[in-house]
User: Fold Membrane-bound metal-dependent hydrolase (DUF457) from Natronococcus occultus SP4.
Amino acid sequence: MMATTHVFAGLAVVAPVAYAVPELATPLAVGAVLGGLLPDIDLVFEHRRTFHFPVIGAPAAVAAIGAALLVPSNATAAVAACFVAAWLHAASDALGDGPEFDPATGDGDRAVYDHVHDRWLRPRRWVRYDGAPEDGVLAVALAVPALVVFEGWIVSVVAAGVVISIGYVLVRRRLVARLPEWLE
Ligand SMILES: [Zn+2]
Assistant:
């Protein structure tokens, strides 16, 4: 899935909370955006393993939500949103493809690493590859709650993300075909 799809998924989850508690909308949005993006910085380590926690991330997210409910503040809300979005990112990576860039060679059986059971989770391929048409549809659909609930710069960021996502989906296949010649 695209980075934007992960970010929009995190924002969609926190949107109802932000709607109910508008004074926490900004920290919730910032936390969700960071949580949607952060797992993929393991691209420079072992991708989909070092910072992806599809299983252990769930109790961590629950604990962070508990802390935010016990001590509501900007900081605890942002951390809880970040943990939830990061867990959702890692868990949903198992529903997509493997981490290969070229979908044609994407026949691997490693979607994301489960640190609890010490094994790789299999890709379900509901989204065949990042930037697939279904990824674009998912991204746009997941962006809607954020566009409705949030205000100001957050809406601008989400709208820009939607445009980038659609553009990426449109050029994605050509990118795979052309990249080898550009790299020569
Ligand atoms: Zn990921």
Summary: The longest strand covers residues 112-114. Residues 39-40, 48, 52, 89, 93 surround zinc ion (CB under 6 Å). The helical segments are 3-20, 25-37, 57-70, 74-93, 133-149, 153-183.
